[in-house]
């Protein structure tokens, strides 16, 4: 199944809003750190419901573009806002449809590891960033968060499972400086008592704690030279 087929189905069944609710727990902390200023141009890679740009517009960014490989995702995102300063478009991480030096910041939540050639995508990010621009790359699926590894079994799109080190190495390989990296725990998801497990695909309470409280979301911040 292609990105388009897989995620069009997610959008058609309301999963775009479901992801927004869950991802917001940690995405809001990532967005709070992103040093966007009034008037800045921001690109959201794998925008889903487009919530990140709606939030950044409330902070006064000038213009936002949300790119997604699934047309239904981009269509839903467009319907969730009437703000003319944000635009949602269909495109692939392989070939960003923007000129060099277009953006002050690029953001991506829970999407980057679907890139067919992630180092090339990082090169594309570097290309579209202005000098000094930042890439805030947030993922929940990464090597240290072991309970996430099984996710690949439930999705037909190939996912890249990198470690924290591998993220930093790839950023540097693509010509981005690594300014910051850390794991942001999700403290909002409710974790039931041990007697209630298995719950939500977690065999034990310890596994769920490891996923949300120990690891949560890995943020790697790259800066374009
Ligand atoms: C797990 S969802 C996350 C959506 C949103 N960022 C969020 O936090 O809820 C991943 C999104 O990335 C998009 N995507 C996956 N691979 C892509 C690719 N190669 N090019 C463009 N978009 C892609 C999917 O269509 C989907 O909307």
UniProtKB/TrEMBL annotation:
Signal peptide annotation: none
Keyword Cytoplasm: no
SUPFAM superfamilies for the chain: S-adenosyl-L-methionine-dependent methyltransferases (SSF53335)
Coiled coil regions in record: none
CDD domains on file: AdoMet_MTases
Annotated Pfam families: Methyltransf_11
Swiss-Prot/TrEMBL keywords: Methyltransferase, Transferase
GO biological-process terms attached to the record: methylation
Statement: the UniProt record of this protein carries the keyword Transferase: yes
Domain of life: Archaea
Single GO MF descriptor: S-adenosylmethionine-dependent methyltransferase activity
Annotated ranges, domain Methyltransferase type: 43-137
Name by which UniProt lists this protein: Methyltransferase type 11
């Amino acid at each position: 199944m292609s990105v388009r087929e897989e995620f069009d189905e997610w959008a058609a069944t309301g999963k775009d809003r479901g992801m927004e609710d869950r991802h917001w727990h940690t995405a809001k902390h990532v967005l709070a750190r992103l040093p966007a200023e009034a008037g800045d141009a921001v690109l959201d890679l794998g925008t889903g419901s487009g919530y990140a740009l709606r939030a950044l517009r409330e902070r006064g960014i000038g213009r936002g573009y949300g790119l997604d490989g699934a047309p239904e995702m981009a269509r839903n995102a467009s319907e969730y806002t009437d703000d003319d300063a944000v635009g949602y478009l269909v495109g692939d991480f392989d070939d960003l449809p923007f000129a060099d030096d277009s953006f002050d910041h690029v953001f991506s939540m829970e999407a980057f590891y679907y890139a067919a050639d992630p180092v090339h995508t990082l090169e594309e990010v570097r290309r579209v960033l202005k000098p000094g621009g930042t890439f805030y790359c947030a993922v929940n699926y990464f090597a240290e968060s072991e309970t996430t590894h099984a996710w690949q079994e439930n999705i037909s799109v190939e996912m890249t499972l990198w470690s924290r080190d591998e993220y930093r190495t790839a950023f540097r390989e693509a010509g981005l400086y690594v300014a910051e990296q850390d794991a942001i725990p999700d403290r909002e998801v409710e974790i039931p008592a041990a007697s209630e497990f298995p719950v939500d695909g977690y065999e034990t309470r310890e596994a769920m704690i490891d996923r949300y409280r120990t690891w949560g979301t890995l943020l790697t911040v790259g800066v374009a030279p």
